[in-house]
Write a structure and sequence with these properties.
mainly alpha, 130 residues, single chain
Amino acid sequence: MDEIEQLALFRRIAVSGMRGETNVQIPRKMLPALLLMAMADKFDEKWYLEQYPDVALAIKEGDIPSAYVHWANVGVFEGRLPRSVSLDENDYARRHKDVARAVNDGTTDSLTDHFVRIGFLEGREYQLEP
């Protein structure tokens, strides 16, 4: 998104705010640039590449420039998290007995792994550690 498009988007957001609107329509093509700005100091590239080896391979093969660019343009729409989360595993196990059983059975690595790979996208309830 070039600077003119950024300013147009910022204007759209400002006008919506001045009108008291609670929802702002943001074109999908502009969302990656906003995400890149918003998450600049929160994105964990090392973690992202460890969690999503397909992205690491795509970078190595020259298909994408970085994990951060992948996340903003594709990953966020696929439900990939930009960094680790401090999941309250006791709470998650209490809420989701099936996942706790899967961890005990060895069919799932951990409660946090389940949340990152499946539970987040499924919309499972969770709580973060304080």
